[in-house]
Design brief:
The structure is a single chain. By secondary structure, this protein is of the alpha+beta class. The chain has a domain of about 60 residues: SH3 type barrels (Roll). Helix content is about 25%, strand content about 20%. A hairpin with a 2-residue loop joins strand 1 and strand 2.
Length: about 220
């Protein structure tokens, strides 16, 4: 039995070896296989979508002349736009300036105007213009500005005298009160030696008695 099984095993190996050799011989004879090409599609590609474009303006003439959403299908006449109101130019004001000083040299007068908004100084003479105002006249203590029919007079700013110095009498009085506490509390002060001498009087001498017999 063992010899029979060994014979079958050897025969099977020989058959397997023969099949392998036959497969190798077949592959070597055909050479390398070419790669498979993809099958060609028989379906046609869709046409490209055209880009969106607005129609010409002339094609909407019927829609404009006969609107769909109006009962009478009549176009509304466009009204001319109203003219925008013209803003009036801001009128210059003389309150912007204050007369700070007047310089008089020979027969020529110069006014120094102080700008109340910026704090700057402007030097002007008679006949010159500043911020839409003409300097009409410069006096000794005032200046007259004119804009059309409007006239403004700027008075020269004057500064008062400095306040008087504070009196130091209350401080001296306080020092005297601090030096004399008895007098401040209402107690009488002791009399000085001179006053005591004046108040002390010596004994009175008796007056002489007249003799009545001599009369």
């Amino acid at each position: 039995m063992r010899a029979l099984s060994s014979g079958w095993l050897v025969a099977s190996l020989l058959v397997l070896w023969a099949l392998v050799m036959a497969e190798l011989h077949f592959r070597v004879g055909q050479g390398p296989r070419a790669p498979r090409l993809p099958a060609e599609s028989t379906t046609a590609e869709p046409a490209p979508v055209p880009l969106f474009a607005l129609a010409e303006r002339g094609s909407f003439s019927a829609t404009i002349e006969r609107p769909l959403f109006l009962p009478n299908r009549q176009a509304v006449a466009s009204e001319a736009p109203a003219a925008a109101p013209v803003a009036e130019a801001a009128r210059p004001t003389a309150n912007r300036y204050a007369l700070s000083a007047i310089i008089i040299v020979d027969q020529q007068r110069i006014a120094l105007l102080s700008d109340t908004t910026t704090g700057g100084l402007t030097r002007v003479r008679e006949g010159e213009r500043v911020a839409g105002w003409q300097v009409e006249k410069i006096g000794e203590s005032s200046a007259v500005l004119r804009s059309g029919d409007t006239r403004e007079e700027l008075a020269l700013r004057t500064f008062g005298p400095p306040p008087p110095p504070r009196s130091r009498q209350p401080a001296r009085r306080a020092d005297n009160e601090a030096a004399q506490p008895g007098q401040r509390e209402g107690t009488p002060l002791a009399a000085s030696p001179d006053r005591r001498r004046r108040r002390v009087r010596g004994p009175r001498e008796p007056l002489p008695v007249p003799d009545r017999g001599e009369n």
